[in-house]
Amino acid sequence: MLDCDMHARPTSDERWVRAIHELAGMQRPSASEGERIAAEAIATHLRELGCDVRVEPERAHGGYWWPIGLANAVAAAAALTALGNRRPRARLAAAVAAGTAAAALWDDLGQGGRWLRRLLPRRSTFNVVAETGDPGAERTIVVVAHHDAAHSGLVFHPALGQIGPRLAPKHHERAQQTAPIMFAVWLGPVAIGVGAAVGAARLLRAGLALSLGSIAVMADIGSRPVVPGANDNLTAVGAVIALAQRLRDEPLRGARVVLVSTGSEESFSEGMSGFVARHGAELDPSRTELLCLECLGGARLIVVEGEGMLRMRDYSPAMCDALAAAADQAGVSIERGAKTVAATDALVALRAGYPVVTLASMEDTKLPLNYHWPNDVPENLRWPTIERAIDVSEQFVRMRAAVSRPSP
Q: What is the mean pLDDT of the chain?
């Protein structure tokens, strides 16, 4: 059961609550001056709570609509070439071009080497990195949020999330995840590549339609302003600040805690990629665990047990069990089994070999509250859920530190 007043703001004007309201008023596109200002504000809060803090610039493209749109434009041009010229050489060239575009999208959507982005303009993005806990401990626990905000777009219209629950309520209730919609931006180039290779005009036309639709969707997203991003992901930033305060008030032994708020998460975790590249040598995966916090202001807290836009990657069952155990210890109800067809900063760490888990929340649509929509403002947050998420996060950190603490 939800609280009677599920949107009620906490009665005490705590620092983390003020921070959410303060940051929601800032325009924070990925890799922007607004993102830098937000990073500095977060760093100030954490520094005043006794953390050793720095703001680390990284290089990022700062969006995903250009990589996806350009790859689909190449594929669309290849389809038109193959349809207009049936000669084997023309078809082969079209197949190679579309296949390259499909490979680039697989790499980018899976947060791999991102080689397509290296051809695009880049600018600075800004990560906040703070340290607290037990500085001499061998074990490190990294807690990750992000402070950049997403562009909106018609594809994020709230009405679309209601289609599944209304048309197939029983199937929707049983499903672990929503429909993997990002396949649509990848299947166009795939269909064009195959169609050009085998000379299938119908497949070429179908792929062309998908690619043109993807281009239109990406153009719409790129032209829209950013949303306030209160749930996605200032709720997690607020939780990080609250956690820093609790660890100051009741010091932790047994683990060094690194609190991270990344930039450019909304451009497929470019800030997190920079963090792992910068700190990977000092963060041994055998002694480092990562808790990712995402969209904590919804109705139902969940343990995210896997993620991936094209390929689903499961988290370690032990880490998922540990997060569920922390919720149980904190007296907080949490749901198991959910996976996301989006991608969080945790995916970068997972691919780098770190034990990771994500704490998040969702609505009955199995989507985050007000996802990438202009009504993602502090007034619409479910504040009691955020408070419970803070309790779970603190309990998780303390329990993991106790596991790593040597016996007297």
A: 93
